[in-house]
Amino acid sequence: MSPLLGLDGLHLLRDGRRVLDGASLALHPGERLAILGANGSGKTTLLRTLVGLERPAAGRVLLFGADCRSEAQFRSARRRMGFLFQDSDDQLFCPTVLEDVAFGPLNLGLSDRQARATAMEALVALGLALLADRVTHRLSGGEKRLVCLAGLLAMRPEVLLLDEPTNGVDAENGRRLRAALAAFEGAMILVSHDEGLVADVATRAMELRDGRLAPRPILSPSAARKSEKNGPDRQRDERDDRHASEPEEDEPAHPAHQ
């Protein structure tokens, strides 16, 4: 079976530093691939490259059978992917929760009524119906994370790309997030320091080190819980995020909702 997404010998430089140095991967239907690695190793950059927000110096980005090089090719592929940013505030921009979740379906051509109905279905599925009329910037961190995920799920993507999805998420919202990911029927690439989430969700894992990807075992759920008790590194990948280049001028402001 052909992969849905792939990277082939990717090389990417930033400020003279080699962030990706021959990185390769393939994501097949139904797979849930966890990308692990130290802060600053390039995990966020890898996800941004998959959606065309970073352009490699060499190598290929393969999306749904197409060798994507132009913005038009990436724009077409993004309609089939949902990208959860590491910082929810970078992804929420409409005044209310319902409007924000409905934005993606509207961009896919649904009428206003259809888009709002689809958005409400996504909110109900995540237990967020009571937040529909809330102002997005007044939500808690965990609520923002789930609303962002609802916005992606409302578009019914084939693939989810998740950058530290449990960042700032409390226990209750964390249970809702895990349940939503477990129920998602498509494929996903998950970047996370949360070993418990990886153990619960991922079907395989790779580690990004020195710009390359290599297979890595997934901890058992019991070992993951022990690791969490010992204080896992849950900090944001600040170095990676802080040095990420901005989208090109013609890049849409909300690529994850296209």
TrEMBL record:
Keywords: ATP-binding, Nucleotide-binding, Transport. The keyword Nucleotide-binding applies. Residues 5-235 form the ABC transporter domain. Pfam families: ABC_tran. Residues 212-258 are annotated as: Disordered. Residues 225-246 have a biased composition (Basic and acidic residues). GO terms for molecular function: ATP binding. It comes from the Bacteria. Belongs to the ABC transporter superfamily. This is Cobalt/nickel transport system ATP-binding protein. It comes from Cereibacter johrii.
